[in-house]
Specification:
The complex is a heterodimer of chains A (187) and B (403).
Chain A: H1 2-58, H2 65-80, H3 86-107, H4 111-114, H5 117-152, H6 156-163, H7 176-180
Helix pairs in contact in A: 1-2, 1-5, 1-6, 2-3
Chain B: H1 2-34, H2 38-58, H3 61-68, E1 70-73, H4 79-92, E2 99-103, E3 110-113, E4 121-125, H5 126-131, H6 134-149, H7 152-192, H8 195-239, H9 242-254, H10 292-301, H11 307-318, H12 326-331, H13 349-367, E5 371-374, E6 380-383, E7 391-393, E8 400-402
Parallel strand pairs in B: 2-4
Antiparallel strand pairs in B: 1-2, 3-4, 5-6, 7-8
Helix pairs in contact in B: 1-2, 1-7, 1-8, 2-7, 4-6, 6-8, 6-9, 7-8, 8-9, 9-10, 10-11
Classes of the chains: A mainly alpha (187), B alpha+beta (403).
Chain lengths: 187, 403
């Protein structure tokens, strides 16, 4: 009789612990999903801004056809990858960021352009969108790290294995050096 | 880093609970003295506390923002500020975009309000918008968003209400004791026949009435200063660029303009104590903010952008102590810092400052319902809202313009 009660109590406690861990895993997974959606919003915003930017800049920069084309090409390539996984997508977006950074560096050589109100507004939008992309990536990666820890650490890994929670993929720009210091060809 | 919020809440809750215990203790002793019933005293203390809470709740953020003279802005009013707040909202994982306000004041300051993350606001002064570059403004906003994210506003108003209750009860009790307490105390002692006990209670009551407000103040300031360090640490983590906030604090501390609209109640919500006297390091126990020079030194000593880096810098600068809870340190990995934004080149600083100044004053004119009329000669005429005529003469070239 007493043994029965003890077993029942232990089972109830285990079930409660299981439910708590399960719910916290669901919370973690939702946070990762939500963070991913945030990145997606900002990347789409960047796709929309680029044609505008190229249009505004073109009239001023007759000699930078190649730089402009590189940006448009990288944008289209990145947009095509938009349904791919985090890793592949990050590579394409990293290339786009690099191309854009090169363009914005070249802009320094065109004082007329820097006096154009339309361009200045676009530049602020673009700077901020770049920041938002990197901040949402930061938040996404932190969320993935936390969630992955949870799916791999004892005892929550048991619950994760039983209920099929899979580790998330980081969104990392592979060639970080390219982003920070874009090479400019002064010719 | 999310672990950090929870464990901070625990630690601050302990401090607030300490203040609550102080309040109950005061009620206990005073109840024994005045009503011969300690429970009644505690009940009275709790009732006063509840009433103060209701008052504080009723005077929500709208009053605070109203007192500060804040205008709400949209993205179109000031895209840069709005974008920066949005960036920090994303970096901190806040679910809802806080409302953004501008206070028309040349002083350099910013504050955050809102009892919950769902209903929060960030306000900055126009002086701040004029003087800070993008990275610096981002640092300040990150600090404010950290206050929202760490639930500091709610915590500080909770602690503030207890502090106010302790102060009020002690003040009235001391008056009552001097005017009527002595006589009644004497009568009661003859009834019960325990004169010695009454003297002891009187002594404890007196000591407590003097010490309780001081202790409550010290606890309140301890909570407040701790939250400032933590908001600096989370701010650095969100931006991954501690130098932005450090350089902003330097500019703010160097400014001699005092904020008009601040009062003692709103002081803990600002980035920097609005009542600091120029130059003096307010390192004493009764300051709501840690000394600014120390905050700057800690931020500059950081080797990376993470919580662990802040902890290490804090130890290095202060020589002792610890600020970040261990659970947060255990969770966080190494965090790299980012480089400065390309626009913060010192060469461009002057022209950029003029540009920022113009942009901010334009915004303030628009917010006061002034209309812009651009004359053909290039002069911009500002037409006040009370101007009723349909035409205005340009003072520069004499042309007549339609309003």
């Amino acid at each position: 009789m007493i043994a029965g009660i003890v077993i029942a109590v232990v089972v109830v406690i285990l079930v409660i612990i299981f439910i708590a861990i399960y719910n916290s895993l669901v919370r973690g997974r939702n946070q990762v999903k939500n963070a991913w959606a945030q990145i997606d919003v900002q990347l789409k915003r960047r796709y929309d801004l680029i044609p505008n930017l190229v249009e505004t800049v073109r009239g001023y920069m007759k000699h930078e056809r190649e730089t402009l084309e590189a940006v448009t090409r990288a944008r289209n390539a990145a947009q095509q990858m938009s349904s791919a996984g985090a890793g592949e997508r990050a590579r394409a977006e990293g290339e786009l960021s690099g191309a854009l950074a090169r363009l914005l560096l070249v802009v320094e050589r065109y004082p007329d352009l820097k006096a154009n109100q339309n361009f200045l507004a676009l530049q602020e939008e673009l700077t901020s969108t770049e920041n938002k992309i990197s901040f949402s990536r930061q938040y996404y990666n932190d969320s993935v790290l936390k969630y992955n820890n949870q799916t791999q650490m004892f005892p929550s890994n048991i619950v994760a294995n039983i209920s099929g929670f899979k580790a998330g993929e980081f969104f990392e720009v592979k060639d970080a050096g390219e982003r920070l210091a874009p090479k400019v060809n002064f010719t | 880093m999310w672990e950090q919020i929870r464990s901070n809440r625990m630690r601050s809750a302990v401090l607030v609970a300490g203040m609550g215990v102080l309040l109950l203790l005061l009620g206990y002793v005073l109840g024994m003295f005045f009503f011969d019933n300690s429970i009644a005293g505690m009940v009275v203390a709790l009732v006063i506390w509840a009433i103060m809470n209701l008052v504080a709740y009723a005077q929500g953020d709208s009053i605070l923002l109203g007192v500060a003279g804040a205008h709400k802005i949209t993205r179109d009013d000031h895209p840069r500020l709005y974008n920066i707040v949005e960036e920090m909202k994303i970096a901190s994982g806040l679910e809802r975009m806080p409302d953004v306000y501008i206070i028309d004041d040349p002083a350099l300051n910013a504050f955050a309000t809102g009892r919950s993350a769902e209903k929060a606001s960030v306000a900055v002064t126009s002086g701040l918008l004029q003087r800070l570059n993008r990275d610096e403004l981002q640092g300040v906003i990150a600090h404010e968003i950290s206050h929202i994210k760490n639930r500091d506003v709610l915590l500080m108003s909770l602690a503030g209400v207890i502090l106010g209750t302790v102060v009020i009860i002690s003040w009235y009790a001391s008056r009552m004791m001097f005017f009527s307490g002595m006589a009644r105390g004497g009568k009661r002692s003859s009834d019960s026949g325990g004169g010695g006990g009454q003297v002891i209670i009187l002594a404890i009551g007196l000591v407590l009435m003097i010490l309780a407000p001081i202790a409550a103040h010290l606890l309140y300031y301890a909570i407040s200063r701790r939250r400032e360090y933590l908001a600096d640490a989370s701010g650095a983590l969100y931006t991954r660029y501690p130098e932005g906030l450090a350089s902003a604090l330097e500019k703010i501390a160097g400014s001699t303009v005092q904020l008009k609209a601040a009062n003692q109640a709103t002081a803990p919500m600002y980035t920097i104590n609005p009542f600091r006297s120029g130059g003096r390091a307010a390192a004493d126990l009764t300051s709501t903010h840690p000394p600014t020079s120390e905050r700057i030194r800690i931020l500059r000593a950081m080797a990376g952008g993470g919580m662990a880096d802040y902890e290490q810098a804090y130890r290095q600068v202060r020589g002792k102590g610890s600020i970040i809870p261990a659970s947060a340190l255990a969770e966080a990995g190494a965090v790299a810092m980012r480089a400065a934004s390309p626009e913060t080149k010192p060469v461009e600083e002057t022209s950029e400052r003029i540009e920022r100044y113009r942009e901010t004053s334009d915004l303030m004119w628009r917010k006061s319902n002034y209309r812009d009329v651009t004359c053909d000669c290039g002069t911009i005429l500002r037409v006040p809202p009370t101007y009723r005529q349909t035409q205005v003469r340009c003072p520069h070239c004499g042309r007549i313009n339609r309003v």
